[in-house]
Amino acid sequence: MKRLAGLSALALVISSTSGCGWLYGEHGYFRDRGNDYLEATQNAPMQLPSGVQTDKRLDPLLPIPRNVADQTTAKAAFEVPRPLPLQVAAEASDFTLQKSGDNHWVLAQRAPAEVWPVAHQFFEDNGFQIAQERPQTGEFTTAWQRFDTLSGALATRLKSAASNGDSETRVRVRIEPGVQRNTSEVYVVSVERAAGSSADVDFPAHSTNNALDSVLVDQMLAGMTRDSEKGGSVSLLAAHDYDTPSRVALTTDGNGNPTLSVGSDLDRAWASVGSALDRGQWKVEDINRSLGLYYINLAEKAEKKDDQPGFFSRLFGTAPTKEEREARAERYQVRLSKVGDNVQVTVEKNINTVAPPDVARRVLSMIQDNLG
Fold first, then answer.
1. N or C: which end of the chain has fewer CB within 10 A?
2. Residue 1 above 60 pLDDT?
3. How many CB atoms within 10 Å of residue 290?
């Protein structure tokens, strides 16, 4: 008991001492010794007694840096400067150059519908005349033009890369969905012909004039990046047109099951249906691109970026539990299948069971409304 009483008295004395400066202050017992090295001085090197010889060199164990040992240095408190922030954000870009052998293309961290108007605008700003455009297939082509009809800087580079600086050229730009969702790949292919010729030269399947196409891809990448850094807007009308297939019809198959026929290739239809589902009211839980499947849950609302639970929901825990969500789940899968020149969109309960007609029609109608 006496020991306990003594410890209690000691604790009382310590707690009553204002600021505890005698413990942690500049001259306290537990003071910070991190700057003690600034007070260090350098002594004369160790000398061996006369008559003692050794082959081992005697070096100081704790050498003091010369700038610290300088007695003229002011003894003042030193603050370590804060590290500079990493310049990462400035280096990031939505557009990057990709290479495979002699082929070059632009990878965009954006959906094809957002890349279409940006690429379209770049060619128009540089003097190209758009001859044909097919938003549903993600392609547009320019008219036959001489290099001197294009913008000065680009014209000079193209003339030096062309096989004949006095020839005419036209360009085809193709925008495809990337491997990852909401990414795009932009390909450029050009052809040349003699100036004044009326020959209609077809586009090759792959680039044949690598030097000319590389210049176009490099300049397009630079233009897209500048537009992105400036916060350039995209044409919502052009983006909407790009995402809209040429023909969309709600029909039934031979068994009377509702189907949606989309007049487009499979890649374009996949991107278009995905965008339509994202704009819908139901949650997309998963996708399988190789099987052409979107997995949806009709019992859950689509997740929006700005949706946050309310104050009382967080306070009283009114959000449904995982078990409650599973109990009420209404899961279906939207399948895309290539049929002739079109893509057929159907709704299934699972791989062996089609969805009830009323459910399938409700889902397909929503997709059709968001496509148009």
1. N
2. no
3. 6
Domains of the chain with CATH codes: 95-240 (3.30.530.50), 245-304+323-371 (3.30.310.170)
Radius of gyration of the CA atoms of the chain, in A = 36
Q: Which residues pair with 108 in a beta bridge?
A: 95, 184
Q: How confident is the model at residue 333 (pLDDT cuts 50, 70, 90)?
A: very high
Q: Report yes or no: 94 and 230 within 8 Å, Cβ to Cβ.
A: no
Closest alpha carbon to 300 in 260, 271, 332: 332
The string of pLDDT tens digits covering residues 58-105 is 666 666 666 554 555 555 555 666 665 544 444 467 899 988 777 889
Does residue 234 carry a pLDDT above 70? no
| Amino acid residing at 265 | D
Q: Lowest mean pLDDT: which of 76-80, 288-292, 322-326, 355-359?
A: 76-80
- Which tokens is 363 given? 């889902």
With a CB cutoff of 8 Å and minimum separation 6, the contacts of 37 are: 64, 68
Structure tokens at 300: 């859950």
Q: What is the structure's pLDDT at 88?
A: 45
Tell whether the model's pLDDT for residue 270 goes beyond 50: yes
**Residue type (1 letter), 255:** N
Measured distance CA(86)–CA(240) in Å, rounded: 38
Quick one: 47 exposed, middle or buried, by C-beta within 10 A (0-12, 13-18, 19+)?
Answer: exposed
Strand partners, 335: 293, 346
Predicted local distance difference test score (pLDDT) of residue 89: 42
pLDDT at 65: 63
Give yes or no for a contact between 208 and 169, defined as CB atoms under 8 angstroms apart.
no
CB atoms within 10 A of CB 148: 13
